[in-house]
Amino acid sequence: MAEEQYLIDAWELGESWRVFRIISEFVEGIDLLHKIYPAVSIFGSARAKPEDLIYQKTELIARKCAQAGYAVITGGGGGVMEAANKGAAEAGGKSVGMNIELPFEQKPNAYANIRLSFRYFFVRKVMFIKYAQAYIILPGGFGTLDELTEAVTLIQTKKIKPFPVFLIDSNYWKPLIDWFKNSLIKNEKISAEDMEIFTIIDDPDELIKELTRRVII
């Protein structure tokens, strides 16, 4: 019984100290990122390779964002994140990588010139939302969908001020948009006007034009 009670006490102590780790991640992130303005957060698959069209398109978009005066914030890993950090850095812009500590897949890329590391996804997600004036979302998997739906939900529920959410590659996103229309709207799970929260764009130049129109520096 004594050993069992010790383990319980140790676990509870560990839970209490975890709060300080969480606070420290918030403090570090806020201290660094509040100086960065304006900025866009770019999301997409960590599995995209440099020879992939989506990687190259992301690099171009990030370069154009940096040239237009926007810092670029990514998750700091490979694939689309690497491409975005690369494009922004090579254009002479602020290239922020907010890496997450994972047992597999995620490794910091070499192109972020401003770096943060997080253990907790939810702290990192707050930083993405709080310090971005727009979201640019390229094809990706569960993590990308998580960031998309998080932003759309916060805007829909008016928990944050609305900001532009751009979905890049209409062919990739069309099945999801069709499902929104044919299932969610049809079954009254969302309203038709909720579809106005995001904009689908294919052309990088059109994206920058829309971004600068809606996010005034």
Describe this structure in words.
The chain is of the alpha/beta class and 217 residues long. It has one domain: Rossmann fold. Helix content is 51%, strand content 15%. The chain contains 7 helices and 7 strands, in the order H-E-H-E-H-E-E-H-E-H-E-H-E-H. Helix 2 links the parallel strand 1 and strand 2. The longest helix is centred in the N-terminal third of the chain and has 32 residues. 36% of the residues are buried.
For the largest beta-sheet, the strand count, sense and barrel status come to: 7 strands, parallel
Approximately what portion of the residues adopt beta-strand conformation?
5-15%
Shape: globular
Count of extended strands: 7
CATH class: Alpha Beta
Which key phrases capture this entry?
single chain; 51% helix; 217 residues; disordered N terminus; 7 helices; Rossmann fold; alpha/beta
Quick structural summary:
The protein is 51% helix and 15% strand. The protein has helices spanning 2-33, 53-67, 80-90, 121-130, 142-156, 170-185, 204-214, and strands spanning 39-43, 71-74, 95-100, 114-118, 134-137, 165-168, 198-201.
Task: Break the fold down into its secondary structure elements and pairings.
Layout: H1 2-33, E1 39-43, H2 53-67, E2 71-74, H3 80-90, E3 95-100, E4 114-118, H4 121-130, E5 134-137, H5 142-156, E6 165-168, H6 170-185, E7 198-201, H7 204-214
Parallel strand pairs: 1-2, 1-5, 2-3, 3-4, 5-6, 6-7
